[in-house]
Amino acid sequence: MHAWLCTNPTGVEALTWTELPTPTPKAGEVLIEIKAASLNFPDLLIVQNKYQMKPPLPFVPGSEYAGVVAAVGEGVTHLKVGQNVACLSGTGGFGTHTIAPAALCMPLPDGFSHVDAAAFIMIYATSHHALVDRAQLKAGETVLVLGAAGGVGTAAIQIAKAMGARVIAAASSDEKCALCTSIGADATINYSKDNLREAIKTLTDGKGPDVIYDPVGGDFAEPAFRSIAWRGRYLVVGFASGPIPALPFNLALLKGASIVGVFWGEFSKREPKANAAMMGELAQWYAQGKIKPVIDRTMPMAELPAAYAHMGSRGVMGKLVMVN
Protein backbone atom coordinates (compact mmCIF):
# COMPACT_ATOMS: atom_id res chain seq x y z
CA MET A 1 0.00 0.00 0.00
CA HIS A 2 0.95 3.67 -0.34
CA ALA A 3 -0.05 6.61 1.83
CA TRP A 4 0.79 10.24 2.52
CA LEU A 5 2.87 9.99 5.68
CA CYS A 6 3.29 12.82 8.17
CA THR A 7 6.45 12.34 10.23
CA ASN A 8 6.70 15.94 11.40
CA PRO A 9 3.55 18.13 11.53
CA THR A 10 5.08 21.33 10.18
CA GLY A 11 2.72 21.67 7.22
CA VAL A 12 1.62 20.12 3.96
CA GLU A 13 5.12 20.27 2.47
CA ALA A 14 6.31 17.73 5.07
CA LEU A 15 3.99 14.97 3.75
CA THR A 16 5.60 12.20 1.69
CA TRP A 17 3.98 9.55 -0.54
CA THR A 18 5.37 6.42 1.08
CA GLU A 19 5.18 2.69 0.46
CA LEU A 20 4.11 0.89 3.63
CA PRO A 21 3.29 -2.74 4.51
CA THR A 22 -0.43 -3.46 4.17
CA PRO A 23 -1.68 -3.97 7.76
CA THR A 24 -3.88 -6.77 9.10
CA PRO A 25 -7.00 -5.80 11.03
CA LYS A 26 -7.11 -6.65 14.73
CA ALA A 27 -10.22 -7.48 16.75
CA GLY A 28 -12.97 -4.95 16.06
CA GLU A 29 -11.18 -3.53 13.01
CA VAL A 30 -11.49 -3.72 9.23
CA LEU A 31 -9.04 -3.15 6.41
CA ILE A 32 -10.49 -0.77 3.83
CA GLU A 33 -9.34 -0.39 0.25
CA ILE A 34 -9.84 3.34 -0.15
CA LYS A 35 -11.64 4.53 -3.28
CA ALA A 36 -12.19 8.19 -2.31
CA ALA A 37 -11.26 10.53 0.55
CA SER A 38 -12.44 14.09 1.10
CA LEU A 39 -10.32 17.02 2.18
CA ASN A 40 -11.68 18.83 5.25
CA PHE A 41 -10.40 21.88 7.12
CA PRO A 42 -9.23 19.74 10.10
CA ASP A 43 -7.03 17.77 7.65
CA LEU A 44 -5.05 20.98 7.14
CA LEU A 45 -4.88 21.86 10.83
CA ILE A 46 -3.73 18.38 11.84
CA VAL A 47 -0.64 18.43 9.60
CA GLN A 48 0.21 21.90 10.98
CA ASN A 49 -0.07 20.65 14.59
CA LYS A 50 -2.95 23.10 15.15
CA TYR A 51 -5.81 20.63 15.62
CA GLN A 52 -7.20 19.61 19.02
CA MET A 53 -6.50 15.95 18.22
CA LYS A 54 -2.75 15.26 17.96
CA PRO A 55 -2.16 11.70 16.73
CA PRO A 56 1.11 9.93 17.57
CA LEU A 57 3.78 10.26 14.89
CA PRO A 58 4.07 9.17 12.20
CA PHE A 59 0.47 9.24 10.96
CA VAL A 60 -1.49 9.34 7.72
CA PRO A 61 -3.92 12.29 7.52
CA GLY A 62 -7.34 12.06 5.93
CA SER A 63 -10.25 12.03 8.34
CA GLU A 64 -13.06 10.93 6.02
CA TYR A 65 -13.08 8.30 3.29
CA ALA A 66 -15.03 5.58 1.52
CA GLY A 67 -14.09 2.27 -0.03
CA VAL A 68 -14.43 -1.49 0.04
CA VAL A 69 -13.87 -3.78 3.03
CA ALA A 70 -10.82 -5.92 2.15
CA ALA A 71 -10.51 -7.87 5.42
CA VAL A 72 -12.28 -8.04 8.78
CA GLY A 73 -10.83 -8.59 12.25
CA GLU A 74 -12.04 -10.90 14.97
CA GLY A 75 -15.51 -10.16 16.32
CA VAL A 76 -16.65 -8.03 13.36
CA THR A 77 -20.05 -9.41 12.36
CA HIS A 78 -21.95 -6.46 10.84
CA LEU A 79 -19.48 -5.95 7.96
CA LYS A 80 -18.14 -8.38 5.37
CA VAL A 81 -15.41 -8.48 2.75
CA GLY A 82 -16.51 -6.73 -0.44
CA GLN A 83 -18.95 -4.40 1.31
CA ASN A 84 -18.95 -0.68 0.48
CA VAL A 85 -18.50 1.57 3.51
CA ALA A 86 -17.78 5.14 4.52
CA CYS A 87 -15.80 6.06 7.60
CA LEU A 88 -14.78 9.11 9.57
CA SER A 89 -11.96 8.02 11.84
CA GLY A 90 -9.86 11.19 12.08
CA THR A 91 -6.80 9.87 10.23
CA GLY A 92 -5.77 7.27 7.64
CA GLY A 93 -7.74 8.34 4.59
CA PHE A 94 -5.04 9.72 2.32
CA GLY A 95 -3.68 6.43 1.04
CA THR A 96 -4.65 3.29 -0.83
CA HIS A 97 -5.61 1.27 2.28
CA THR A 98 -6.27 1.91 5.95
CA ILE A 99 -7.30 0.17 9.16
CA ALA A 100 -10.55 1.51 10.62
CA PRO A 101 -12.59 0.71 13.72
CA ALA A 102 -15.54 -1.36 12.47
CA ALA A 103 -17.88 0.58 14.79
CA LEU A 104 -17.13 3.80 12.89
CA CYS A 105 -17.92 2.35 9.45
CA MET A 106 -21.21 3.29 7.82
CA PRO A 107 -22.47 0.57 5.43
CA LEU A 108 -23.42 2.15 2.11
CA PRO A 109 -26.73 1.30 0.48
CA ASP A 110 -26.81 0.48 -3.23
CA GLY A 111 -26.46 3.57 -5.38
CA PHE A 112 -24.39 5.56 -2.86
CA SER A 113 -21.23 6.48 -4.79
CA HIS A 114 -17.82 6.37 -3.12
CA VAL A 115 -17.17 10.02 -4.02
CA ASP A 116 -20.43 11.20 -2.42
CA ALA A 117 -19.90 8.92 0.57
CA ALA A 118 -16.40 10.27 1.19
CA ALA A 119 -17.86 13.78 1.37
CA PHE A 120 -20.94 12.92 3.42
CA ILE A 121 -20.50 12.09 7.09
CA MET A 122 -18.72 15.13 8.51
CA ILE A 123 -20.67 17.89 6.81
CA TYR A 124 -24.16 16.37 7.04
CA ALA A 125 -23.75 15.02 10.57
CA THR A 126 -22.43 18.38 11.75
CA SER A 127 -25.23 20.32 10.07
CA HIS A 128 -28.04 17.95 11.12
CA HIS A 129 -26.81 17.93 14.74
CA ALA A 130 -26.57 21.74 14.63
CA LEU A 131 -29.93 22.56 13.05
CA VAL A 132 -32.14 19.72 14.29
CA ASP A 133 -30.72 18.87 17.72
CA ARG A 134 -29.05 22.06 18.93
CA ALA A 135 -31.18 24.75 17.25
CA GLN A 136 -34.49 22.81 17.29
CA LEU A 137 -35.24 24.35 13.88
CA LYS A 138 -38.91 24.49 12.93
CA ALA A 139 -40.59 24.71 9.53
CA GLY A 140 -41.21 28.30 8.52
CA GLU A 141 -38.26 29.74 10.45
CA THR A 142 -35.46 31.66 8.74
CA VAL A 143 -31.88 30.38 8.78
CA LEU A 144 -28.84 32.50 7.91
CA VAL A 145 -25.89 30.36 6.77
CA LEU A 146 -22.47 32.02 6.83
CA GLY A 147 -19.73 30.50 4.67
CA ALA A 148 -22.61 29.00 2.78
CA ALA A 149 -20.68 27.71 -0.25
CA GLY A 150 -18.31 25.54 1.78
CA GLY A 151 -18.79 21.91 2.76
CA VAL A 152 -20.81 22.33 5.95
CA GLY A 153 -22.51 25.42 4.53
CA THR A 154 -23.92 23.61 1.50
CA ALA A 155 -25.04 20.76 3.78
CA ALA A 156 -26.74 23.24 6.10
CA ILE A 157 -28.66 24.81 3.21
CA GLN A 158 -29.96 21.42 2.06
CA ILE A 159 -30.91 20.22 5.55
CA ALA A 160 -32.65 23.49 6.45
CA LYS A 161 -34.67 23.33 3.23
CA ALA A 162 -35.54 19.68 3.87
CA MET A 163 -36.97 20.82 7.22
CA GLY A 164 -39.13 23.51 5.63
CA ALA A 165 -37.08 26.57 6.63
CA ARG A 166 -36.35 29.70 4.64
CA VAL A 167 -32.61 29.99 3.93
CA ILE A 168 -30.48 33.08 3.46
CA ALA A 169 -27.01 32.07 2.25
CA ALA A 170 -24.05 34.41 2.81
CA ALA A 171 -20.86 33.86 0.82
CA SER A 172 -17.86 35.80 -0.47
CA SER A 173 -18.52 35.97 -4.23
CA ASP A 174 -21.32 36.11 -6.77
CA GLU A 175 -20.25 32.70 -8.08
CA LYS A 176 -20.58 31.17 -4.61
CA CYS A 177 -23.95 32.86 -4.09
CA ALA A 178 -25.16 31.41 -7.41
CA LEU A 179 -24.15 27.93 -6.24
CA CYS A 180 -26.15 28.42 -3.03
CA THR A 181 -29.21 29.44 -5.03
CA SER A 182 -28.85 26.36 -7.23
CA ILE A 183 -29.06 24.04 -4.20
CA GLY A 184 -32.09 25.69 -2.65
CA ALA A 185 -31.18 28.96 -0.91
CA ASP A 186 -34.09 31.43 -1.01
CA ALA A 187 -31.89 34.53 -0.90
CA THR A 188 -28.16 35.31 -0.87
CA ILE A 189 -25.79 37.93 0.51
CA ASN A 190 -22.36 38.57 -1.01
CA TYR A 191 -20.61 39.85 2.10
CA SER A 192 -17.52 40.90 0.15
CA LYS A 193 -19.52 43.79 -1.29
CA ASP A 194 -22.82 44.00 0.63
CA ASN A 195 -23.22 45.38 4.15
CA LEU A 196 -24.13 42.25 6.09
CA ARG A 197 -26.39 43.89 8.69
CA GLU A 198 -28.26 45.99 6.14
CA ALA A 199 -28.75 43.02 3.82
CA ILE A 200 -30.06 40.83 6.66
CA LYS A 201 -32.43 43.60 7.76
CA THR A 202 -33.78 43.97 4.22
CA LEU A 203 -34.20 40.24 3.60
CA THR A 204 -35.98 39.61 6.92
CA ASP A 205 -38.13 42.78 6.99
CA GLY A 206 -36.24 43.90 10.05
CA LYS A 207 -37.03 40.78 12.09
CA GLY A 208 -33.68 39.01 11.74
CA PRO A 209 -32.96 35.30 11.26
CA ASP A 210 -34.25 32.79 13.81
CA VAL A 211 -31.13 30.66 13.46
CA ILE A 212 -27.60 31.68 12.43
CA TYR A 213 -25.27 28.86 11.32
CA ASP A 214 -21.67 30.05 11.64
CA PRO A 215 -18.72 27.83 10.64
CA VAL A 216 -16.58 30.89 9.85
CA GLY A 217 -16.13 33.06 12.95
CA GLY A 218 -14.00 36.15 12.51
CA ASP A 219 -15.27 39.60 11.65
CA PHE A 220 -18.80 38.68 10.56
CA ALA A 221 -19.85 37.03 13.84
CA GLU A 222 -20.73 40.20 15.75
CA PRO A 223 -22.70 41.98 13.00
CA ALA A 224 -24.57 38.73 12.33
CA PHE A 225 -25.38 38.25 16.02
CA ARG A 226 -26.53 41.87 16.31
CA SER A 227 -29.03 41.07 13.54
CA ILE A 228 -30.53 37.94 15.13
CA ALA A 229 -34.28 37.64 15.79
CA TRP A 230 -35.89 37.62 19.24
CA ARG A 231 -35.29 34.16 20.79
CA GLY A 232 -32.78 33.48 18.02
CA ARG A 233 -30.16 30.72 18.22
CA TYR A 234 -26.58 31.41 17.15
CA LEU A 235 -24.81 28.16 16.23
CA VAL A 236 -21.06 28.19 16.88
CA VAL A 237 -19.88 25.57 14.38
CA GLY A 238 -16.25 26.52 13.70
CA PHE A 239 -13.70 29.19 12.86
CA ALA A 240 -12.65 28.64 9.25
CA SER A 241 -11.56 32.26 8.88
CA GLY A 242 -9.03 31.81 11.69
CA PRO A 243 -9.86 34.36 14.42
CA ILE A 244 -12.19 33.28 17.23
CA PRO A 245 -14.67 36.13 17.80
CA ALA A 246 -15.60 37.59 21.19
CA LEU A 247 -19.26 38.58 21.50
CA PRO A 248 -20.58 41.09 24.08
CA PHE A 249 -22.94 39.14 26.35
CA ASN A 250 -25.40 42.05 26.53
CA LEU A 251 -26.39 41.25 22.93
CA ALA A 252 -27.72 37.86 24.02
CA LEU A 253 -29.65 39.54 26.85
CA LEU A 254 -31.24 42.19 24.63
CA LYS A 255 -32.46 39.67 22.05
CA GLY A 256 -33.34 36.85 24.46
CA ALA A 257 -30.99 34.92 22.19
CA SER A 258 -28.91 31.77 22.72
CA ILE A 259 -25.29 31.13 21.78
CA VAL A 260 -25.20 27.40 21.09
CA GLY A 261 -22.06 25.29 20.76
CA VAL A 262 -21.97 22.58 18.10
CA PHE A 263 -19.47 19.74 18.59
CA TRP A 264 -20.75 16.79 16.58
CA GLY A 265 -17.67 14.64 17.23
CA GLU A 266 -18.23 14.71 20.98
CA PHE A 267 -22.00 14.22 20.54
CA SER A 268 -21.35 11.05 18.51
CA LYS A 269 -19.18 9.63 21.31
CA ARG A 270 -21.42 10.62 24.22
CA GLU A 271 -24.77 9.83 22.55
CA PRO A 272 -24.05 6.98 20.10
CA LYS A 273 -27.68 5.82 19.81
CA ALA A 274 -28.93 9.29 18.94
CA ASN A 275 -26.07 9.70 16.47
CA ALA A 276 -26.84 6.35 14.79
CA ALA A 277 -30.49 7.34 14.41
CA MET A 278 -29.43 10.65 12.88
CA MET A 279 -27.10 8.95 10.39
CA GLY A 280 -29.92 6.59 9.40
CA GLU A 281 -32.19 9.54 8.69
CA LEU A 282 -29.48 11.26 6.64
CA ALA A 283 -28.94 8.10 4.55
CA GLN A 284 -32.69 8.03 3.86
CA TRP A 285 -32.66 11.68 2.83
CA TYR A 286 -29.80 10.97 0.42
CA ALA A 287 -31.74 8.06 -1.11
CA GLN A 288 -34.79 10.32 -1.45
CA GLY A 289 -32.74 13.02 -3.22
CA LYS A 290 -33.26 15.61 -0.48
CA ILE A 291 -29.52 15.98 0.12
CA LYS A 292 -26.47 15.42 -2.05
CA PRO A 293 -22.88 16.55 -1.46
CA VAL A 294 -21.67 19.41 -3.63
CA ILE A 295 -18.37 18.22 -5.13
CA ASP A 296 -16.03 21.04 -6.14
CA ARG A 297 -13.80 18.58 -8.00
CA THR A 298 -12.11 15.19 -7.72
CA MET A 299 -8.33 14.88 -7.91
CA PRO A 300 -5.96 11.88 -7.97
CA MET A 301 -4.71 10.88 -4.52
CA ALA A 302 -1.14 11.50 -5.73
CA GLU A 303 -2.00 15.21 -6.17
CA LEU A 304 -2.86 15.81 -2.51
CA PRO A 305 -0.45 18.78 -2.07
CA ALA A 306 -2.14 20.57 -4.97
CA ALA A 307 -5.54 19.86 -3.40
CA TYR A 308 -4.38 21.39 -0.11
CA ALA A 309 -3.22 24.47 -2.03
CA HIS A 310 -6.61 24.78 -3.73
CA MET A 311 -8.40 24.52 -0.38
CA GLY A 312 -6.08 27.16 1.08
CA SER A 313 -7.00 29.57 -1.71
CA ARG A 314 -10.58 29.72 -0.34
CA GLY A 315 -11.83 28.92 -3.82
CA VAL A 316 -13.44 25.59 -2.98
CA MET A 317 -17.21 25.32 -3.35
CA GLY A 318 -18.54 22.25 -1.58
CA LYS A 319 -16.01 19.46 -1.07
CA LEU A 320 -12.69 18.41 -2.61
CA VAL A 321 -12.37 14.64 -3.02
CA MET A 322 -9.22 12.61 -3.68
CA VAL A 323 -9.68 9.37 -5.64
CA ASN A 324 -7.63 6.20 -6.13
Structure description:
It comes from Acidovorax delafieldii. Pfam families: ADH_N (PF08240), ADH_zinc_N (PF00107). This is NADPH2:quinone reductase. The chain is an alpha/beta fold and 324 residues long. Helix content is 31%, strand content 25%. The chain has 11 helices and 15 strands. The strands form 3 sheets. Strands 3, 4, 5, 6, 7, 14 and 15 form a 7-stranded mixed sheet that branches. It is globular, with a radius of gyration of 20 Å.
Unreliable stretches: none
The tally of structural domains comes to 2
> Any guess at the CATH architecture of the largest domain?
Alpha-Beta Complex
Shape: globular
Helix/sheet category: alpha/beta
How many beta strands in the DSSP annotation? 15
Tell me the layout of helices and strands:
Blueprint (H helix, E strand, L loop, with lengths): L1 E5 L8 E5 L9 E11 L1 H7 L16 E9 L11 E5 L8 E5 L3 E3 L6 H5 L2 H14 L7 E4 L5 H12 L3 E6 L2 H9 L4 E4 L5 H8 L7 E4 L6 H6 L6 E4 L12 H7 L2 E4 L2 H7 L1 H16 L7 E6 L3 H9 L6 E5 L1
Parallel strand pairs: 8-9, 8-11, 9-10, 11-12, 12-13, 14-15
Antiparallel strand pairs: 1-2, 3-4, 3-6, 3-15, 4-5, 5-7
Give a quick summary of the entry.
With 324 residues, this protein is of the alpha/beta class. It has 11 helices and 15 strands.
